[in-house]
Design brief:
The chain is of the alpha/beta class and about 250 residues long. About 45% of the residues lie in helices and about 15% in strands. The protein has one domain: Rossmann fold (3-Layer(aba) Sandwich), CATH 3.40.50.720. It is built from 9 helices and 7 strands; from the N terminus they run βαβαβαβαβααβαααβ. The protein has a 7-stranded parallel beta sheet with strand order 3-2-1-4-5-6-7, with helices on both faces. Helix 4 packs parallel to helix 6. The termini are far apart.
């Protein structure tokens, strides 16, 4: 029996890439997984069900309260009260490297709306369900760029710094509800979207490998162990924390 047996988990941005890996890992540990994305999540759902797991796919916009309310209602109707929320949906791989003076306000606002407001709105949407459940785990995803700075992505780096601050403050508010809120700070990960971004790969891969104590490429599967720990009862006394998963690129 897996660590997440019969627990209900929502993973946003799980139609592909790292989110799909998260969803499959939670399902493999016994969770009933609600796979959400603005794109069709059916491939992830099929992969989970083919492996014997339980999943529900929903097209969801994390910046829309109406969409998030519908997501929560459908998740509860299908599986019961929600215990785990993984706020993975974000704008990143589609961004082009450019000086901050060339980042337009519309693109800046899009990144903030999805990467910062999205986790905030998703947490609000699922909290009543977690309260009914009597416990919950909210796992937010930040980036190692926050700890060292990264040129060319000022809006993305700023958004992920905000996610880190949001998690710490939210953990204080939700402790009374037995809801733990933590952050995974991930290093440069070779997901589907990142590998398709040739400019990013060319500029970032080499220097990143040189910084790592574990000198190899980082893949989505490298984050799974930390995710499962934070989603499980093993971390019931852990909240407001950030766990850096980057192969030792930033030893601190």
């Amino acid at each position: 029996m897996g660590r997440m047996h019969n627990k209900v988990a929502i993973v946003t941005g799980a139609a592909q890439g790292i989110g799909r890996v998260y969803a499959k890992a939670l399902a493999a540990e016994g969770a009933k997984v609600v796979v959400t994305d603005i794109q069709d999540p059916s491939r992830t759902v099929q992969a989970i069900e083919s492996a014997g797991g339980k999943a529900l796919g929903l097209i969801t916009d994390v910046t829309s309260n109406a969409s998030l309310t519908a997501m929560t209602a459908e998740a509860e109707s299908a599986f019961g009260p929600i215990e785990i929320l993984v706020n993975n949906a974000a704008v990143f791989a589609t961004l082009q490297l450019r000086p901050f003076t060339e980042i337009g306000e519309e693109e800046w606002d899009l990144v903030m709306r999805v990467n910062v407001r999205g986790p905030f709105q998703a947490a609000k949407a699922v909290l009543p369900s977690m309260r009914k459940n009597g416990r919950g785990k909210i796992i937010n995803i930040s980036s190692g760029t926050v700890l060292r700075g990264a040129p060319g992505f000022l809006h993305y780096v700023t958004s992920k710094g905000a996610v880190l601050a949001q998690s710490r403050s939210l953990s204080r508010e939700l402790a009374k509800d037995n809801v733990c809120v933590n952050t995974i700070i991930i290093g440069f990960t070779e997901s589907e979207g990142v590998k398709a971004h040739q400019e990013l790969m060319a500029k970032v891969k080499g220097p990143t490998l040189q910084m790592r104590a574990i000198a190899r490429d980082m893949v989505p599967q490298d984050i799974v162990g930390t995710l499962l720990y934070l989603a499980s009862e093993d971390s019931d006394f852990v909240t407001g924390q950030s766990v850096n998963v980057d192969g030792g690129a930033l030893n601190q």
